[in-house]
Specification:
single chain, 363 residues, TIM Barrel, 10 helices, 27% helix
């Protein structure tokens, strides 16, 4: 196996080996030296849109309420992640996180931790106008809003809902609430969407949002993802360059999933306009990944494409005493992180799409 393109060792430990050498102290690290600093937390698998590249029109069999982690259970796990394991950023996702009624309470609890992490959220923007002030007051620092097009007819086709105006209003409300760095996440479901992409970037530039265009990944519930049909990073950049001059971004990328460019002639000297592309398939960045994921039903996943996960819910609902419970969470989490694969494997001959779709894993 050659892993040079990922910046990883060329001879990884045998997959499936008993992790007897799992570190029991220090950073939350894997076998390749990657340190987990970013935790994506799915607070629900439910969504009020039906995007064609994510789920069927009729929706999915949602998680029963009693199987989802309670507020207290979530807060406990997040406290351990931050205080015991060094997590520095927590991003709340879904499904659609705004469908969780106690989201403000969760954010406030995380914001009150002694080692306060950065708190972010990814949302489709529906209902944001009603809740953004409360979310910011609770401690929300950053927001990403999913928006694939500003063409009303195409938006309705992709999402199967006529709600574009609500998303645009939600973005504006986030800016009024004082969030200074608002990102727009876009997926192009088909190559026919490419000619409209400059319009989306133009909209973001006009309103001060940062566009991130994401290659469609094989995480759809229908399992209809097709590599040949996927719009690639090269195609995305080629189309944007027909109308905009993109300059190299002098900032180091670090572990960020997006490669970014400055949009010449836009923004200001102290805040230049940027556009990013998240090329998870054609330009994988697994070698710098610092993320872990917690599903709404309490499963730890060390990769979006992981074929296994670690159940925390059963442990949380056991009768272990307080200190023993925290220690057990730490031990399980360290083992889960340690066994992370060197890469997501999407481009390998033995790749298998995870059984959980994106809406059930969390972005």
């Amino acid at each position: 196996m050659t892993l040079v393109s990922l910046g990883l060792p060329t001879t990884p430990p045998a997959i499936g080996a008993v992790p007897i050498d799992t570190p029991r102290s220090g950073p939350l690290v894997d076998r390749f030296g990657r340190v987990v600093r970013d935790l994506r937390v799915s607070v629900t698998d439910r969504c009020n849109l039906r995007c064609t590249y994510c789920m069927p029109e009729e929706g999915l069999d949602w998680l029963p309420t009693e199987q989802a982690l309670t507020t207290a259970e979530l807060v406990r796990v997040l406290r351990v992640a931050v205080d015991e394991l060094g997590v520095e950023t927590i991003r709340f996702t879904g499904g659609e996180p705004l469908l969780r009624r106690d989201l403000e309470e969760l954010i406030a609890a995380v914001a009150a931790l002694p080692s306060r992490p950065e708190i972010a959220m990814t949302t489709n923007g529906l209902g944001l106008t009603r809740r953004i002030d409360g979310l910011v007051a609770a401690g929300l620092d950053r927001i990403n809003v999913s928006l694939d097009t500003v063409n009303p007819a195409r938006f309705a086709e992709i999402t199967r809902r006529d709600r574009l105006d609500d998303v645009i209003a939600g973005l504006a409300a986030a800016r009024r609430a004082g969030l200074s760095r608002i990102k727009v996440n876009a997926v192009l479901p088909a190559r026919d969407d490419l000619p409209r992409l400059p319009d989306l970037l133009r909209f973001c530039l006009e309103h001060g949002y940062e566009l991130r265009v994401i290659e469609q990944m094989p995480l759809d519930a229908d399992h209809r993802w097709n590599r040949e049909a996927m719009v690639t990073a090269d195609e995305i950049l080629a189309v944007l360059r027909t109308e905009f001059t993109l300059l190299p971004d002098p900032r180091p990328r670090g572990s960020a999933p997006a490669a970014t460019w400055l949009v010449d002639g836009h923004g200001s000297p102290d805040r230049p306009a940027r556009v990013g592309v998240i090329a998870s398939v054609t330009r994988p960045f697994c070698g710098d990944c610092d993320r872990a994921r917690l599903t709404a039903d309490g499963a730890l996943r060390n990769c979006l494409f992981a074929q296994s996960e670690t159940d925390l819910r059963t442990l949380l609902r056991s009768d272990l005493p307080e200190r023993s419970l925290d220690a057990a969470i730490v031990d399980l989490w360290r083992t889960n992180a340690w066994m992370k694969e060197p890469g997501h494997g999407v481009n390998g001959p033995n790749f298998h799409q995870p059984t959980r779709p994106m809406s059930a894993i969390g972005g």
